[in-house]
Amino acid sequence: MSENHHAPRQASNKNYTAAIVTISLIVNIVILLLFFSPIGYKGEIDFDLTIFPRINGVLNSFTFIFLLAALIAILRKNVKLHKGFILAAFSSTLLFLVIYLTFHYMSSETARFGGEGIIRPIYFFLLLSHSILAAIIVPLALFTLVWGWTNQLHKHRRIARWTMPIWLYVSLTGVVVFLMMEPYY
């Protein structure tokens, strides 16, 4: 390839980088605002909002399964199947995010974990590690997706070695945290 073919790709990479950083910041800032500022919905709700965490538990399960299937597909060199499962994981994660933000916007207060004894520090360790890594996975997953789809496979493979285990951990701990919290909704 001539150098002229590389220049547009680099320019578009900068555009992707700006978009990914912007999306990541917005998502994480909105989540922080919903937890730490009084910007939620103040009106009456005519239905049981606890359906949202239950749906999200299922969506996190789907994400975990899709990611495992994507990993198995790529280990077997089936790129087409890998891409399909990655898109499924992104779809379930995006739907999770919309429902998660909706729940925390509409819910006047979040349920509190009521477990006691040794389970309490285990829960908070899982919740804290899940939350921190969930914030980190947003840009990681987006960069990994973009670099894979734009055939920047060296970058894609290098970052995917971090993205896949972190995303698997976040989706699995999302399910575990939900199951631990479920009695308190």
From TrEMBL:
- The domain of life is Bacteria
Q: Which residues form a coiled coil?
A: none
Q: Transmembrane region positions?
A: 16-37, 57-75, 84-103, 123-147, 159-181
Q: Which UniProt keywords apply?
A: Membrane, Transmembrane, Transmembrane helix
Keyword set includes Transmembrane helix: yes
Q: Does the record's keyword annotation contain Protease?
A: no
| Protein's name according to its UniProt entry | DUF420 domain-containing protein
